[in-house]
Amino acid sequence: MVHRLVVSYGQPDDPAAFDAYYRDTHTPLATQMPGLVRFTTGSPQPLDPSQPAPYLVAELDFESEQEMGAAFTSAEGKAAAEDVANFATGGATMTHYELNEVHAPR
């Protein structure tokens, strides 16, 4: 099974500064977390333009919830978590869940 952490970042005060910091500083910190098996990011667009979308969404996958917990108690995980306050001026919401794969009928 895969356990996923989703971080949704709100609109930053300075998007260019957010992007540079996220790319050059935060991503290298996050990718050092032990047990991380996949790390993806994207800039979502709402299907309904009247609804706001996060500025950026990051998905971090671990083999289990226990592996995720261990990652965040590690020195690398603590550093990555503490770093969020340095750039996420629009706030950050973190959620996690066990992935359940559903196959579409053919």
TrEMBL record:
- Which InterPro entries does this entry report, sorted A to Z? Dimeric_a/b-barrel (IPR011008), EthD_dom (IPR009799)
Q: Outline the extent of the EthD domain.
A: 14-89
Show the stretches that span the lipid bilayer. none
Specify one Pfam family.
EthD
Domain of life of the organism in this record?
Answer: Bacteria
Task: List the molecular function annotations (GO) for this entry.
Answer: oxidoreductase activity
Identification of the protein by name: EthD domain-containing protein
State the species of origin: Geodermatophilus poikilotrophus
